[in-house]
Amino acid sequence: MITSSYRDEWETVFDREIFLGERKFLYNMAIATFSHKIYESVLEKYPHKEIAHLGSPNGRKPIWLLDIDGKEIVFYMSGIGACQAGNDLIEMQWQTGIMKFVIFGSAGSLDNEVTAGKYIIPTEAYRDEGMSYHYAPPSDYIDIRSSEILKAKFKKFGLPYVCGKVWTTDAPYRETKSAIDERKADGCIAVEMELAGVQAVCDFHGIELYSFLVAGDVLGGEKCDCEGLTGANHSIDNFDVALKLAEEMERY
Questions:
Q1: pTM given for the model
Q2: What are 161-178's pLDDT values in tens digits?
């Protein structure tokens, strides 16, 4: 069974060094986006240089060092889905030594009255994907360790937020009405595709993850309402919030 995939072993038959060379310890903090529009806007706005890259048969994804008013922040575009996002983080960390990541993205709201106009700070993620079961013992949910820290930071920034459980799934086209109703009944306020797997990877490797979401489409009604999806995915304001968090967390 997939829930029996976890092994309490560190050694594997191959490691990142085979593909990525010697491990490096170079930087402290990274920001990842899933949006190509935010990615392009950030690179247009800030001076940057390539310091490494994520490679696969799908193509080469650069890892950038941004110069933001004289401060260095590492920046990259993550793959979508728990497996891709988790593996990108693993390979990114090997090449840079970074132990603190701010990752932000969009989510589908399961309760628009709760999430409308607010950032979502996940407290737990329902593990409806495969990645997390290789990095953490089986359980329905995984704790999002940074939620209390993020709550304090969003309060400090004066930003509207709501805290709650989220549902991580790698099968968005199987978000059926009965599945949505079950997750809502269990207290989930949003659904997304990465967090449970990425949090499990971070816990396994001792990495600090700071993640927030913005609700776009609304799935809690009779039909999906996708009107807000573009803004949730691609608003540059979300990067500005991530940058504030990165600056705070680097001092933390």
A1: 0.93
A2: 999 999 999 998 998 889
